[in-house]
Amino acid sequence: QRDLELYFTWLIGFVLFAVSIKMIRILKFNCRISVLAMTLERSAPSMASFALIYLLINAAFNSALYTLLFSKLLNYRHFLAVTEATTASL
């Protein structure tokens, strides 16, 4: 039940994101929404490169943490657990 609830939450998040993007495209005739859409289009390459670099640095940090602590701490036995722990501490 817990896993189904987690999958459902992810699905709802994805659906809301898709609906928000669709609504921006539908409301492009509005001047303010058009400026928002144009800003998002122009900043998409910069945001994508930032996300890629962030994910690489985060993966390197998690790998180092896993390598150092997997034999010492029970909560850090799996790479996914390390990733969850570092994400939850943000």
TrEMBL record:
Membrane topology: Multi-pass membrane protein
Principal location listed in the UniProt entry: membrane
GO function terms (MF aspect): calcium channel activity
Keywords: Membrane, Transmembrane, Transmembrane helix
Regions crossing the membrane: 6-27, 48-69
A Pfam family of this chain: PKD_channel
Cellular compartments per GO CC: membrane
Classification via InterPro entries: PKD1_2_channel, Polycystin
Entry keyword Protease: no
GO biological process: detection of mechanical stimulus
UniProt subcellular location: Membrane
Domain (Polycystin cation channel PKD1/PKD2) ranges: 8-80
Family: Belongs to the polycystin family.
Cross-referenced PANTHER family: LOCATION OF VULVA DEFECTIVE 1, POLYCYSTIN FAMILY MEMBER
Entry protein name: Polycystin cation channel PKD1/PKD2 domain-containing protein
Species name: Pristionchus mayeri
Lineage, uppermost ranks: Eukaryota, Metazoa, Ecdysozoa, Nematoda, Chromadorea
